[in-house]
Design brief:
heterodimer; A: 430 residues; mainly alpha; ABC transporter involved in vitamin B12 uptake, BtuC; 2 domains; 3% strand; B: 257 residues; Rossmann fold; four-stranded antiparallel beta sheet; 10 strands; 36% helix
Chain lengths: 430, 257
């Protein structure tokens, strides 16, 4: 036999990427030193684990779950109760291992609830996850001993014996705990994609019927993947409990589940690293955008809408498509178009944004007067001229954007054909 | 223990009140190549769907190597050594040719649902997948996504996935459907090659192909097997000629093949 499979024990490129990832995790709080940024970095780590675990279902298994927060949330609660038990001296495990309690809890609930959920695929699967999520949220209002009612359950993460002076009291210490978990969990979840179960999960996503005829029970494949996703979700939840030191019922709520779905999709479900980008965006949106404007959910909805319509592969696929163009040395042909697209988009968004802000101002803050400050310009929310001006800016931007976009699409198409030709040429040359 | 590789005993299937399969009896010996022929709508594909577990029969028995398999799930039947292909190409479009084949060998090599081993380290699975790729002549398309293959290549991959698990009973549902004459003859050669020593049932329309490939022919008309014999005997069978073959047999003989 001529073609013996060549097993490469390690791959240099891969080592570089993982080392860089570790380096970023270590250096981030040294570069962004403010309190706010450390808090945000910690939240990003948690969101990365949560979104990647969600993508095990969505991107790798084709399972559209509307209830992933059930597993992160219940993980949070269990970790919080364990933390309080540690504080009370009833439980003798170090605080650094409490996220694993969350993980085991997430896994346990996935074993229990996932058995029903993964009986079906496709739309019925989505419906069942929604039902389960509603069920758990309703229970959170009923069982206030466990869920803490309105106030939630709080705790103090400085508990048990400290190890070498590490108490996890200071934010930066909890950040490094989260960073360590993030690194290990991301590595494990990536490793999962390279295992038989991980690959069969892709097969089940693409063609479940055929999988049944090569010896695999598709329900089992989905169920096992669901349990593993539940484990990582629970770890994210446990880290969240330590980070915030309070867990309220909203952590199992539909809004949280929706956020995982939305940002995993935005980041890009078809590539492993997509949800990492999504998770980072999620925290930026939740923490910064929500401070900046009251209309942030509206902007988020718009972004989501346009992504679904024009870039269903998310940001990750946009990056990968342009990397391919760059690899064939053709990015130079197109970068002026990107510049044009960017500038015209800014003009268009400035106009639209100003109008949205004026509407919000009239609805919510009209008692404060008619003046709205937007990008350094004072606008009169009741003045015809500001409305007219904003509309003019937006429409001009829109028109120019559309013109640039058409030009860009032509260039893009040409480049793709050239690349296809080049690939064919190389194939025949070999 | 039955001497047959596959045995159908008074097999029946109704969809609503319509009887599609109306008491089929068939006994296929190990290593036999059987062509299942019959007019459109006779129930050939339904028969394959019953045997492979896609549907459960209304009544009757299906016995594979001495064990009942009716009312078993497709994956259970597959694990017991029966594998099938589909009339409409049924592969994993977003996976590469190599990944398609590797997925298809995993269960038979005992890897089941494991997530504690890396695929790249499964020497036997990787070697088997490479070997299959050579058998179906797709070694040059190793990393091409299945959806980017030509139609004929996809049909070859379909066969590759079907034989990958090493099943000893193979069902091929119109393997050459939609292929040109020259592609068909090359493809039949391939099928013969990769199913050496196996029990083969295949639905086929091209009579030239049928007479060249099969040890035995089963003629299915209106949900019943009206004849099951060697090609020569089937050709001479008056009932068959009347019901179905007639002109097409004459054609294939006139063609000199």
């Amino acid at each position: 036999m001529s073609a013996v499979y060549k097993f490469k024990p390690y791959n240099v490129g891969r080592w570089v990427i993982w080392s860089l990832f570790a380096l970023v995790l270590i250096c981030a709080p040294l570069v962004f030193t403010s309190n706010l940024s450390t808090t945000m970095l910690a939240q990003m780590g948690i969101a990365i684990i949560a979104c990647l675990s969600y993508n095990m279902l969505l991107g790798q298994g084709g399972m559209l779950s509307f209830g992933h927060a059930v597993y992160t949330g219940l993980g949070s609660y269990m970790a919080m109760h364990a933390l309080n038990a540690v504080s009370a001296g009833q439980l003798g495990i170090p605080v650094s291992l409490l996220p694993l309690v969350g993980g085991v809890a997430g896994m346990g609930f996935a074993v229990l609830l996932g058995y029903v959920t993964t009986k079906k695929a496709g739309t019925p699967f989505a419906m069942i996850t929604m039902g389960v999520a509603e069920l758990v949220f309703a229970m959170s209002l009923m069982f206030s001993e466990f869920f803490g009612g309105e106030a939630g359950v709080s705790g103090n993460r400085v508990a048990g014996e400290s190890f070498m002076g590490i108490t996890f009291g200071p934010q930066v210490q909890i950040y490094y705990l989260i960073a360590a978990y993030t690194f290990v969990c991301v590595a494990l979840m990536y490793a999962f994609t390279q295992t038989p179960l991980g690959r069969m999960l892709n097969a089940v996503r693409d063609n479940p019927e055929r999988v049944e005829f090569i010896g695999y029970n598709t329900q089992r494949v989905r169920y096992f993947a669901f349990i593993i996703a539940g484990f990582f979700a629970g770890i994210a939840g446990g880290l969240g409990a330590l980070n915030f030191e309070i867990v309220t019922a909203e952590v199992v709520g539909a809004a949280r589940s929706g956020a995982y779905l939305l940002f995993t999709f935005l980041g890009g479900a078809t590539f492993f690293f997509g949800p990492i980008l999504g998770a980072i965006l999620m925290i930026i949106a939740f923490v910064l955008l929500s401070e900046l404007t009251k209309a942030w959910l509206l902007y988020l909805g718009l972004v989501f809408l346009f992504m679904v319509m024009y870039a269903p592969g998310g940001i990750a696929s946009l990056i990968m498509m342009n990397l391919r163009v760059a690899k064939f040395g053709k990015l130079r042909q197109i970068w002026t178009s990107y510049l044009g697209l960017g500038l015209t988009a800014i003009v268009m968004l400035a106009g639209a944004g100003a109008m949205i802000e004026m509407v919000y101002h009239l609805q919510l803050n009209s008692a404060l007067g008619d003046t709205v400050k937007f990008m350094g310009v004072a606008l009169n929310a009741k003045g015809v001229d500001s409305w007219f001006g904003c509309a003019f800016v937006m429409l001009t931007g829109l028109g120019l954007f559309e013109l640039t976009r058409r030009q860009y699409m032509l260039e893009w198409g040409e480049i793709q054909t050239e690349i296809e030709k080049e690939i064919k040429r190389r194939e025949t040359a070999v | 223990m039955s001497a047959y590789a596959l045995e159908l005993k008074d097999l029946r299937k109704n969809f609503g009140k319509t009887e599609i399969i109306r008491g089929v009896n068939l006994a296929v010996q190990a290593g036999e190549r059987v062509a299942v022929i019959g007019p459109n709508g006779a129930g050939k594909s339904t028969l394959f769907n019953l045997i492979s577990g896609r549907f459960g029969p209304t009544s009757g028995e299906i016995v594979l190597n001495g064990q009942r398999i009716d009312h078993k799930k497709p994956y259970e039947i597959n694990r017991m050594g029966l594998s099938r292909s589909f009339q409409i190409t049924n592969i994993f479009p977003k996976l590469s040719v190599f990944e398609n084949l590797r997925c298809a060998v995993l269960w038979s090599l005992g890897y089941k649902y494991t997530f504690l081993k890396f695929l790249s380290g499964l020497k036997d699975a990787n070697e088997r997948a490479e070997q299959l790729m050579e058998m179906i002549r797709l070694e040059k398309k190793r990393d091409t996504l299945a959806m980017n293959l030509t139609y004929a290549e996809q049909r070859a991959l379909e066969i590759g996935i079907t034989i990958a698990g090493g099943a000893d009973v193979i069902l091929l549902d119109e393997p050459t459907a939609g292929m040109s004459k020259s592609e068909t003859s090359r493809f039949i050669h391939l099928i013969k090659e990769v199913t050496v020593g196996k029990t083969l049932l295949t639905v086929e329309h091209d009579m030239g192909v049928v007479f060249g490939l099969a040890d035995k022919i089963a003629v299915v008309v209106y949900g019943e097997v009206i004849a099951f014999d060697t090609p020569e005997a089937v050709r001479a069978n008056a009932k068959v000629q009347e019901a179905y073959l007639g002109s097409s047999v004459a054609d294939s003989q006139a063609g000199g093949h």
